[in-house]
Design brief:
This protein is mostly helical. The chain has two domains: 184 residues, no CATH class; 128 residues, no CATH class. The strands form two sheets. Strands 1-2 form a two-stranded antiparallel ribbon. Strands 3-4 form a two-stranded antiparallel ribbon. Helix 3 packs antiparallel against helix 6. The longest helix is centred in the last third of the chain and has 25 residues. The chain is elongated and about 95 Å long. The model has no long low-confidence stretch (mean pLDDT 95).
């Protein structure tokens, strides 16, 4: 993940508090209570329950199954809810992880139905998601997806951006209404690449670390192109080998979930190289070269000057993929072979 996103204080966050307090009540529930009663819930939550028969039914169905579980099973369900909603601890692998299939078989269906219904219906009753997105859009300094850095966010007057369940609701339904788990995300990142991938587990089922979107702990990712080769007459796309610094597990998870390397290669370096190089050549012609020849050294000096124009602060460098253009020209300056530099010199001279 390239930069932190912003957590918005908003009424929509209250649903997580309501359901959290309900689970706290369930921890010490009197076993003599056999039927769901709205008084088991917060007073403010009751207002929404009494206005929504389907919500009441889902709560009732869940409660009927829950109360029939053994004492140990009930503790397990409540503990699973508590752990699943420590989103930061989950993604940093500091907390036990519970997927839907870890719950007692009897309660899985009722659990998923309750939380999916609350996400799809109740959440927007407690606080309007469109209003939340407007507040979010106005609060973020950069209107770009923080997961890829290349997708622009939609303006709130046009459409609400996709909200992704960072922990997939089909796998972790207990966190389905937690706004720390509902992150505005670019459409491609959400619908094409992430889909229903499990952020917390590798394909072999082992745990892995991921970025917590609201706090990156100072991590700043640098894109490297070591070992790449620029396009030529015989290879119009070039060969791009993309790596990331730092080389840590969170970065590997990020790349795996969002297919960042492949996207940067196909949609940025292969498609933008010619236009970026043309822009550099036009700019280089305006740099003073004392009317001397465009030697390799002169080209590298021009690259230095051009890179300085691309070195921007942590916000503006993500405008128009500037951070990736910067990586490209640093690679050309520092690692491109003599043949490439001479070819660029020839283009500058026209």
């Amino acid at each position: 993940m390239l930069f932190e996103t912003v957590y918005i204080e908003h009424p929509v966050n209250l649903l997580q508090d309501y359901i959290g307090n309900f689970f706290k009540t369930l921890e010490d529930i009197d076993e003599n209570i056999k039927q769901f009663d709205v008084n088991l819930c917060d007073e403010n939550f009751r207002m929404y329950i009494n206005r929504a028969p389907k919500l009441k039914k889902h709560l009732s169905d869940f409660f009927k199954v829950f109360i029939k579980l053994t004492s140990e099973e009930r503790k397990h369900v409540c503990n699973a809810f508590c752990c699943c909603n420590k989103i930061q601890d989950q993604v940093e692998n500091n907390e036990a992880c519970f997927i839907l299939s870890d719950l007692p078989a009897k309660i899985r269906k009722a659990t998923k139905q309750l939380f999916v219904y609350m996400y799809e219906t109740t959440l927007n009753s407690v606080g309007h998601i469109k209003d939340h997105y407007q507040n979010f859009h106005e609060a973020i300094p950069l209107k770009v997806c923080p997961f890829c850095g290349i997708e622009k966010f939609l303006h709130y007057e046009d459409y609400k951006q996709d909200y992704d369940h960072y922990l997939c609701k089909d796998i972790y339904p207990l966190a389905a209404v937690n706004m720390q788990n509902l992150i505005p995300m670019g459409r491609d990142c959400n619908s094409i690449y992430k889909k229903k991938k499990d952020v917390l587990h590798k394909e072999d089922g082992s745990r892995r670390k991921a970025f917590y979107p609201f706090q990156l702990n100072g991590t700043s990712i640098e894109v490297k192109l070591n070992g790449s080769s620029c396009p030529t007459v015989n290879n119009r796309k070039g060969n791009w080998y993309i790596s990331f610094v730092p080389d840590i597990e969170e970065v590997h998870t990020w790349d795996d979930i969002f297919q960042i390397r492949n996207r940067y290669r196909k949609y940025i370096f292969e498609e933008e190289y010619d236009s970026w190089l043309t822009r550099f050549i036009k700019t280089a012609r305006n740099f003073s070269n004392n009317n001397g020849p465009w030697t390799e050294e002169a080209v590298k000096m021009a690259l230095d000057k051009y890179i300085n124009t691309l070195d921007q602060d942590d916000i503006t460098k993500y405008h128009d993929n500037t951070f990736l253009e910067n990586s490209l020209f640093r690679f050309i300056r520092d690692e491109a072979d003599s043949k490439t530099i001479k070819a660029i010199a020839k283009m500058i001279m026209g």
